[in-house]
């Protein structure tokens, strides 16, 4: 049978779109009205939840402290509700909150999940905690508040980036990354075409896919560079821009895997610079050259235009030495994810792909200006 818990709360006048309250509640009552919804993905790759994993040591430290007789916890737990809550105005700045509790707690923890988990040890006591609660209009609004509240905290950026595509009306700095974050997730879960397995499916390390071997930030860098001043910009305004971008980036890295299977399949950034961020990002510039100068659009065409990289001695993804020019060489594992190394490898790969053919002078000038603008962002 559903029951109702009632709290007397102070109401803060803040946003016109939200009701914000603060009240004290016993730990056991907090567990009845709110739950921790951890981020994950279902078998279709759809995102659910938003909270990071527990930090066991941190929780144990809080729990050990709270067991003491003189323990205090002035920090509040932040909860959000979309439904299941009724409010009643009592007097100026004071309201009564009724929370209907059923089989599942209606509230979600937005901030303070570690403290709340530690409080389970006190669930049988009358220990009270401060609760800050807000009522959101829908699930998207709730996710938006979670992102904005936690963006200044040391939360995993991978988690923030995965949540971005599920929310609108974000600050420009976050919104500009939303497309890249969404495409990265699609690449991580797209199965590829028959006879042409995806090179990126399950390979990208995300908060919900910690076993991935490729940095999600590196893939997002490639996408953002291309969308701002490269191949993906050509169809950025198309209704099916996401699908076209998905196919192109997927086809490109599929061609890379086809040409260098020994440096890709079963490898990670420590034993292959091909799957290291420096290699992933640098190859993104090679993709731009193959697209703009040689007209590569499909996996087969990219494979044809990147075949020059497979000549003996040109690439040292897993062993040997990179010989960039007469003055500079580098052991294979000395390349790092730093602006100078990214530019060094990018320039080298771009030159190799470029020198397969030549177009008109105006095309080359335009391409050179475009690539120089992209590479300048690395510095």
The helix/strand order is EEHEEEHEEEEHEHHHEEEEHHHHHEEHH
Overall number of strands = 16
Question: pLDDT average, as an integer?
Answer: 83
* Tally of helical segments: 13
Describe the structure in your own words.
It is a single chain. The chain is an alpha+beta fold and 379 residues long. The protein has helices spanning 27-33, 56-66, 113-118, 139-150, 157-163, 172-189, 216-229, 241-259, 261-264, 277-294, 299-306, 339-354, 361-376, and strands at 3-12, 19-26, 34-35, 40-41, 47-48, 77-81, 85-91, 94-101, 107-111, 128-135, 192-193, 196-197, 204-205, 214-215, 321-323, 329-331. The protein has an 8-stranded mixed sheet with strand order 3-9-6-10-2-1-8-7. Strands 4-5 form a two-stranded antiparallel sheet. The protein has a two-stranded antiparallel sheet with strand order 11-12. Strand 11 (192-193) and strand 12 (196-197) form a beta hairpin. The longest helix is centred in the middle third of the chain and has 19 residues, at 241-259. The protein is elongated and about 75 Å long. The termini are far apart.
